[in-house]
Amino acid sequence: MKTVIAGAAVAAAMLAAPGALAADCGRVTIANMNWPSAEVLAWIDSLILTEGYGCAAELVVGDTQPTLTSMIEKGEPDVAPEGWINSYREALDTAVAEGRLFYAVSTLSDGAAEGFWIPKYVAEAHPEIRSIPDALARPELFPAPEDPGKGAVYNCPTGWGCETNVGNLFRAYDGEDKGFVLVDTGSAAGLDGSIARAFERKEPWLGYYWSPTAILGKYEMVRLDPGEGVTFDKAEWDRCTTVIGCADPKPNAWVTSDVRTVVTQRFRDAGGPAYDYLTRRSWDNATVNRLLAWMTDNQATGETAAKHFLKSSPDVWTAWVSPEVADKVKAAIE
């Protein structure tokens, strides 16, 4: 009897201990997607859920299509921290409506962004340039590297889907008639290199890019408005903007990509305060861009970058958690 009582006392003590939070949260699998912003966010979630909420967090290899498909069909993994859902919205919305999955939060509070960009120093020197038509009215300001008598618009990397979009929009805005050429950047490295060179020399630059990215964390750029009266037209986007060789493209805007944290029913029901954390964990493009730039400059892994973020940006992440949880996480990463 004494042994039974002693055993019960030990069990009660364990339940009362801080680690007892694990009984509420339990095991949670987190998709570690194969691009930097998703990788670092998966590690941030893993560290906060483990150290702050006592979860048994496990990172699993993931990518957009296989991860979201697995969550819809099998209910695993438990969390996709950075789910780019635009291409899978119908199936995901159905799963959400049926209560099998949940959109915990908009991961990027201002949404992912694509479009035509110019350096901030160009925008400040030429405040009249606010839109794509404004920029295309000034070919002399953006000289082409191979033909300075023409203006240059730098294209999306060869073979990427956005190469078609940019090409069609270049024609839709009559880029050639306005004295511009579309520059083939060849690769992501070639596109990044053209931006880096422009900034090193403080030269004008005009072309396609997207956010969040390390480049926009290192180099301040301004995204141009698509022009007066031009908004995202999905019918036109599907009819022509994304179609190779479309004969009659029209001006169009890029849709803001909807990036959500997707969570399974199992973890929503079992996670308790840990799930509540995921409903608050949202950050903007500028924050992500800066972190990705640091990650690139320091050749850091997702884990290293996550710890750097937690140490250097408490003003951001402590708003996602209670003071008690914040203290636990801070103590764990010291």
From TrEMBL:
Keyword set, alphabetical order: Signal
Gene3D superfamilies: Glycine betaine-binding periplasmic protein, domain 2 (3.40.190.100)
GO cellular component: ATP-binding cassette (ABC) transporter complex
Signal sequence, start to end: 1-22
Domain ABC-type glycine betaine transport system substrate-binding, chain residue ranges per copy: 27-311
Name of this chain's protein: Glycine betaine transporter periplasmic subunit
A single GO molecular function term of this UniProt record: transmembrane transporter activity
Positions of transmembrane segments: none
Annotated organism of origin: Methylobrevis pamukkalensis
Pfam family of the protein (one): OpuAC
